[in-house]
Amino acid sequence: MIGSSRYRSHVCADTPEAEGQQVRLAGWVHRRRDHGGIVFIDLRDRSGVVQLVFHPEQAEAHAAAGRLSPEDVLSVIGTVVPRDAQTVNDRIPTGRVEISVEAVEMLSEADPLPFQVEDESIEVSEEVRLTYRYIDLRRSRGLRALELRSRITSAIRRSLEGNGFLDVETPMLTRSTPEGARDFLVPSRLHQGYWYALPQSPQLFKQLLMVGGIERYYQIARCFRDEDLRADRQPEFTQVDLEASFVEPDQVYGVVEDFIVAACAEAGQSLAAPFARLGWEEAMRRFGSDRPDLRYSFEIQDWSQQALGTDFAVFKKTVEGGGVIRALVVPGGGRQFSRKDGDDLVAEAQGLGAKGLVWVVVSDDGSLRSPVAKFLEGLDSDLGASPGDLIAMVADDEVTASSVLGALRARFPKRYGLELESPWAAVWITDFPLVEWNVEEARWDPSHHPFTAPKSEHVEILESDTAAVRADAYDLVMNGVEVGGGSIRIHDTALQQRVFELIGVGAQEAEEKFGFLLQALKLGAPPHGGFALGLDRLVMLLAGEQSIREVIPFPKTASGADPLTGAPAPVGAAQLEELAVESLVPDPVPEG
Fold it and tell me: Closest by alpha carbon to 531, among 261, 282, 275, 247?
């Protein structure tokens, strides 16, 4: 703990326990009020806010208070006294005391601010907030997010180290390897014409650590991916990265569940382990997504066989042609549902890739309201729908029908005001396909990454029935957000080479890009597996935020720019020449 200094003897939050004592405090002017002689200042530091009182009898201090402006930084000496009963403020922890100020030292004067700190209800554009991020962090929202992030990170470290994991750093400058996203490249001055890459993840190095006998590794790792951004994606982000030898998926699940439960506890949230498990195929069939939000129980249902018994030609033709009829019952979604709402929903489904959508409302009297209601007698009974419910139906191939309804399912709870059935829902999604067919390039792509092991019972059909091969891979989904994923890795050189061949990486290319890994696998590699969790995403969820930018100290904007520093920025011709790099873009550096 940091002790007293010439600036402070206590922090604001400690003042109630120091009643009757003289204290020295330091912080920012949060709010100033002049009550015709007596001046009140709310002083803020990281711990909280306390009220300062400046009486005219303390002439020098009182005069100084008259010159204070919002966000000035000062140190004060005063006595902690109880507030009058009628002025006690129960809304803040220090609200029963105040500081009768005897002396003031101005430490730093603040110019007029680009936006207010004290009134967080005033909307400020993200561009302005990020340009002055250091001021934005003074607001309670930013400060509390970083405090929570720190506590969560510490809890994760304690949990992993309690399970025997070693904190080991891996390189930030490495070689470019195909891992699914674009690399950020760094030119080498000493080896001109050659390039480093910033790591997309520590994947290869943590596998090498397993070969090195570390057995249980973890790292709070910085990772870099040059990809388009969104609310839960940044060009640089933080992973909780771990790897362990001689494990199967169950052991990995247990380790991860331990630190997730500990992290939730730091946020005042209770989450019980073990978490639910759901195979990928079942998740897609029931929820139309491999990131299902299980706080809501309504599921996609099949109505294909019943459709064959109707006179509705569209449905019958779809099923007879090998397609399916899938339906989603939205509890209470039909109560205020209009014909225009139906038209909008059809257009929305088409925008998601469906040929169309059929909507049905179960009226209060049990009758069905829909443009095609006459063809759908008994539908509500088949699907378990009640009066007031909305039924959304898609007739298409299985993949399209499930994915469209899955996307709508994710949007419906907010749209129709569905109540949470539980505040938190964590689920492991397992048994992913090892590879996916890339139609545009006519080849197989790894579903996770090329070092993921196929299930042992599927190794023999790797080449003969590739689409059926399942991976020993797993994702962790919390409240509909994928927070992390991992797999058991390939530790056999021959199997790794077979997987490389399957995804179009020939022997020569494999040796050029991954030769160091293949060599290591020949020199005594233990079976191993691991997991990587997006720390930013986890903190975002536990902080109740909608964007990871709110829980990162200095984030980039949606375009990848940093308005605070002006990055990315051009560099001069001399620097480029030193690196033997030529820019194809006309030099944007202004003259002078």
Answer: 247
The one-character DSSP state at 234 is: -
CA quadruple 515, 516, 517, 520: dihedral positive or negative? positive
C-beta of residue 559 within 8 angstroms of C-beta of residue 229:
yes
CB 444 within 8 A of CB 466: yes
CATH 3.40.50.11030 fits 12-108, yes or no: no
Q: What are phi and psi of 553, to 5 degrees?
A: -55, -50
In contact, 318 and 356? CB cutoff 8 Å: no
CA distance 216 to 220: 14
- Residue-wise pLDDT for 176-221, tens only, equals 887 668 899 999 999 999 999 999 999 999 999 999 999 999 999 9
How far apart CA 529 and CA 491 sit, in angstroms, is 9
Which residues, including other chains, have CB under 8 Å from residue 471's CB and lie 6 or more apart?
Answer: 431, 432, 433, 434, 447, 448, 452, 453, 454, 455, 487
pTM over 0.70: yes
Q: Are residues 207 and 170 in contact, defined by beta-carbon separation less than 8 angstroms?
A: no
Question: What's the rounded mean pLDDT across residues 91-100?
Answer: 96
Map out the domains of the chain as residue ranges.
12-108, 141-276+532-563, 296-419, 431-471+494-526
Q: Would you say 444 and 435 are in contact if contact means Cβ atoms under 8 Å apart? A: yes
Sign (positive/negative) of CA torsion 341, 344, 345, 346? positive
Cβ within 8 Å of residue 172, ≥6 positions away: 198, 199, 222
Which of 590, 545, 552 lies closest to 572, judged by CA? 590
Distance CA 496, CA 67 (A): 71
Quick one: average pLDDT of 102-106? Answer: 96
In angstroms, how far apart are the furthest CA atoms of the chain? 93
Tell which CATH classification among 1.10.10.10, 3.40.1350.10, 3.30.930.10, 3.30.390.50 matches the domain 141-276+532-563. 3.30.930.10
16-63 tens-digit pLDDT: 999 999 999 999 999 999 877 899 999 999 999 999 999 999 999 999
At 241, give phi and psi (nearest 5°).
-110, 135
How far is C-alpha 113 from the chain's CA centre? 31
Contact 472, 452 (CB under 8 A): yes
- For residue range 317-361, list pLDDT tens digits in order: 999 999 999 999 999 999 999 999 999 999 999 999 999 999 999
Name 534's bridge partners: 239
Q: If you average pLDDT over residues 510-539, what whole number do you get? A: 94
Fold (CATH) for 296-419 = Gyrase A; domain 2 (3.30.1360)
HEC sequence for 346-358:
HHHHHHCCCCCCE
Q: Which has the closest alpha carbon to 476: 240, 193, 226, 181?
A: 240
Contacts of 282 (CB under 8 A, 6+ apart): none
